[in-house]
């Protein structure tokens, strides 16, 4: 063996030894010396991040976190530097206006794919406040009233296309697809000033397909960011066709936003409000930067589409498995509106049982099922009944919080009445303050009011025109994985028209 070969072998052995020593010492530190060592949780999960990442890549993370809370209680350490809490007070302590020292976990969110300055999701507090104040005009009550005609036009198209689809398929339709077609068409019109025409074509466009395919890659990238030395190598292993789909998603928003900004229109879409207020004295020279526009355009499309369709799908599933509550809801809707023309934003908001069903659907099947991690300030901070050391990442795990017997009576049962006055006697002890499906504080969902109106209008319209019955092949529909979003299969129902 030559001197160089011997040196190479010795160097390799030394590197391997150093790596092994580092790994073992890191494990020992995480278990016995880490600032979070006193928090309850699985020993192995506290020792190495690999346990957490394995659950994440399997699509089981929210369910695993839920099981951990069932075993360990209100607060759990599920990775060396990660804490999950389901204490109601945690929302105020981590996400509220007074929790400004808390920052978004950079390892989880990564960099904005559209560049700097980033859009609403990754902006710092000052930039976020400026952007949100400007964008909020597009989601005001005034804007919703002006956009109502647009929404109702797409919902009427949905009603017509459902009838055609049922006639062509022996009465069967896939509600997941049709809800997606509707929400994507609506949001594309409001965001880009033009429909994707999914309802007309009765199929997904290449961009929407790429968007769904890209979700798993986003989850994978959030894991890869935890291994900086390996990120470049692992990126090389991602198949080219997956990278192409990611590029398709990125460029679609860029092209659509640029096209919309070049068009003069009086239609009340999101950009008409943003552009109108950008020229006011308050925002003179403080409008949205081009990268902020692209990033926020992409955000509006994802946050205002799949999540709404998810809630509609899950709620439909629960209603069709509960004949008594399904009948009560359809009776309320059909009695309230002798004519479909009477159905509006304001009249739908007055339907107490419809609103209770939507809220219970958001509890049972929250579109955002996992937590949104924040990093504790350097000096640490109090979260509920626990002091969190500085630098630790903390989240309120939504699925776990909404299904915890510590907060809800009969947490696994679909009970809309728990949200109504009539349910106070039995369910008055429910901790509703732990329920924030649109998040909490200054970074909560801007489109909450739009989402509620859209869900009411779509569901009420479908149930006003049709009777629905679950098909046998969709009985196990809730058995889904989660890669940031729920991986929904087909929700097949039999549809019977009750009106012309």
UniProtKB/TrEMBL annotation:
Keywords: Heme, Iron, Metal-binding, Monooxygenase, Oxidoreductase. CDD domains: CYP60B-like (cd11058). It comes from the Eukaryota. One of its GO terms (molecular function) is monooxygenase activity. Its cofactor is heme. InterPro entries: Cyt_P450, Cyt_P450_CS, Cyt_P450_E_grp-I, Cyt_P450_sf, Cytochrome_P450_monoxygenase. The keyword Transmembrane helix does not apply. Pfam families: p450. Heme binds at residue 445. Belongs to the cytochrome P450 family. This is Cytochrome P450.
